[in-house]
User: Which sequence fits this backbone?
């Protein structure tokens, strides 16, 4: 069942399409159910055989989550992805952008035997849609279909440089805001959520003295003891029970591995995950966190920035198709003979992904055929400074999804088998070591988007000379044989010595982080940034410094350079 705001979102998207706006941006915070809305819209299109459908995303997780739900509903679909089942005749295609950009687009035929002239294209994490990859994909689709309808899903409808999406869409639907989903603000019809969809997080961040906000965001990049703060705030001893399931966003892969070593040395069950690991290994690590076998899962890449859903990771464990029917029979309390029960248990086991069968009892064992209990994700450690406000908001969204525990039927079933069940999530904790909270603000204020207006600090498009900026690798001298490597290779071509320098952020581990209220955090608004730059220019002028000094202080404070128009205006006003 869709929530009222999700149903209203579908109505709004259809109205925009009927009005001639064929590219619509749908904005909801992380956890608001954007993908669920898209799935219902896709089913509506399928029921009427109105168009062919392509669901496009850039990560495996974003593709697998809706595809699994379509499989559960026994809706025919296929994949445009390396190593997955392909079927050009399928009405629904779940596509990896990296694969689709290299393949031709096949047009399926409708029930009337004629090729579709319409296509509905759903793009997840659509703030990436201006990338060269997506432009090529959309160009291909426009050549194959007469009418192309775009649904662009995102929780952050702007790009890293602050520019909006007006060049790729003509309408925007902001279906819900973080405050509305937290139950802190009413919807347009005056209603308020009684059960919040996302929780208002508790923030732990850097202490700031009066007038010291600039120093807060200067070096070192990481402030506070990452492991020590987690032990103080999120461990079992700190919360009076089971420790909070935690993801840690590190600065780099090497930094992530270093933090894992520190966590393990402190007796914490921790592991590292990144894109170089196999799909099977990544799935196992995500499930380990979702069932409590891991307390902390660290990554130095963007695995947790987009598409990660703790509950969806747990649901990968559950039986599919025929196995789901067999599992329901086993749980029905119907009297079964030994042979029939064994047959059902084997059907359940066979339907589970091979790499995840180890989490279930063996089919011929005497244990209940049940998976481990779900442990909801409750804590984010952010140790990766970023200039991207969108990336920071996405990270927070991973930890704030609400969870009200297993259903009453699930509790009855598991308790009758002598098993524990999943309890309601009590808190959402964000531990910020990076300065991103002060740099970009709290999730609660991330709202009020306008498709036609860029952020005031965004980089304005300008003509270039067409000559790319080259960044050749620096020569590195091998410490063993003293030969010079100029190709940027990670190992010496002559003796095999490792040449890569581990990149770790500067740290000040002695500073103790403190709790902060979201309402007390000064959001980086245009007026705040303008006042800050004006003050820095005034200081530079009084001390005889060049303008570049003030601009560098601005970038250290906010994570990006000031708009050229604002700088030119201040130079004229202040005679700099």
Assistant:
């Amino acid at each position: 069942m869709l929530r009222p705001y999700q149903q209203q979102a579908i109505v709004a998207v259809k109205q925009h399409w009927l009005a001639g706006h064929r590219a619509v941006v749908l904005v909801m915070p992380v956890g608001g159910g954007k993908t669920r809305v898209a799935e219902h819209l896709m089913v509506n299109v399928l029921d009427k055989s109105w168009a062919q459908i392509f669901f496009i995303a850039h990560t495996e997780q974003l593709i697998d989550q809706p595809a699994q739900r379509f499989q559960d509903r026994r809706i025919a679909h296929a994949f445009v992805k390396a190593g997955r089942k392909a079927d050009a005749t399928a009405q629904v295609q779940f596509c990896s952008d990296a694969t689709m950009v290299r393949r031709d687009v096949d047009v399926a035929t409708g029930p009337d035997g004629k090729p579709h002239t319409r296509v509905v294209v759903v793009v997840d994490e659509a703030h990436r849609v201006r990338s060269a990859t997506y432009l090529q994909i959309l160009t291909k689709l426009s050549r194959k279909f007469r009418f192309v309808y775009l649904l662009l899903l995102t929780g952050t409808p702007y790009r890293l440089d602050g520019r909006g999406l007006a060049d790729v869409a003509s309408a925007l639907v902001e279906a819900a805001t973080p405050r509305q989903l937290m139950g802190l603000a009413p919807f347009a019809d005056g209603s308020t959520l009684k059960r919040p969809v996302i929780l208002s997080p508790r923030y732990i961040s850097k202490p700031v003295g009066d007038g010291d906000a600039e120093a807060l965001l200067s070096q070192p990049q990481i402030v506070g003891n990452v492991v020590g703060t987690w032990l103080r705030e999120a461990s079992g001893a700190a919360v009076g029970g089971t420790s909070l399931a935690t993801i840690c966003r590190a600065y780099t892969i090497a930094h992530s591995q270093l933090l894992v070593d520190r966590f393990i040395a402190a007796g914490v069950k921790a592991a590292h995950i990144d894109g170089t690991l196999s799909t099977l290994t990544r799935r196992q690590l995500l499930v380990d966190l979702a069932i409590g076998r891991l307390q902390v899962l660290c990554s130095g890449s963007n695995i947790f920035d987009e598409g990660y859903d703790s509950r969806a990771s747990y649901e990968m464990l559950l039986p599919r198709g025929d196995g789901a029917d067999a599992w329901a029979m086993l749980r029905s309390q119907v009297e079964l003979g030994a042979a029939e029960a064994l047959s059902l248990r084997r059907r359940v086991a066979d339907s589970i992904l091979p790499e995840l069968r180890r989490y279930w009892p063996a089919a011929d064992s005497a244990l209940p055929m049940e998976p481990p209990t779900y442990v909801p994700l409750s804590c984010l450690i952010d140790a990766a400074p970023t200039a991207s406000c969108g990336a920071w908001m996405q990270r927070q969204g991973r930890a704030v999804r609400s969870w009200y525990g297993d259903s009453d039927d699930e509790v009855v079933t598991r308790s009758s088998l002598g098993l524990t069940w999943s309890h309601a999530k009590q808190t959402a904790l964000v531990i910020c070591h990076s300065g991103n909270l002060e740099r970009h603000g709290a999730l609660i204020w991330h709202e009020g988007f306008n498709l036609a207006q860029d952020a005031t600090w965004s980089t304005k498009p300008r003509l270039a000379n067409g000559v790319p900026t080259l960044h050749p690798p620096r020569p590195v001298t091998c410490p063993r044989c003293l030969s010079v490597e100029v190709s940027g290779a990670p190992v010496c071509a002559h003796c095999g010595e490792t040449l890569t320098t581990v990149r770790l952020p500067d740290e000040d581990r002695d500073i103790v982080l403190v709790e902060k209220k979201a309402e007390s955090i000064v959001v980086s608004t245009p007026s705040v940034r303008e006042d800050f730059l004006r003050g820095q220019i005034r200081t530079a002028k009084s001390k005889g410094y060049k303008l570049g000094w003030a601009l560098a202080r601005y970038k250290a404070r906010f994570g990006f350079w000031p708009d050229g128009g604002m700088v030119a205006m201040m130079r004229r006003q202040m005679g700099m």
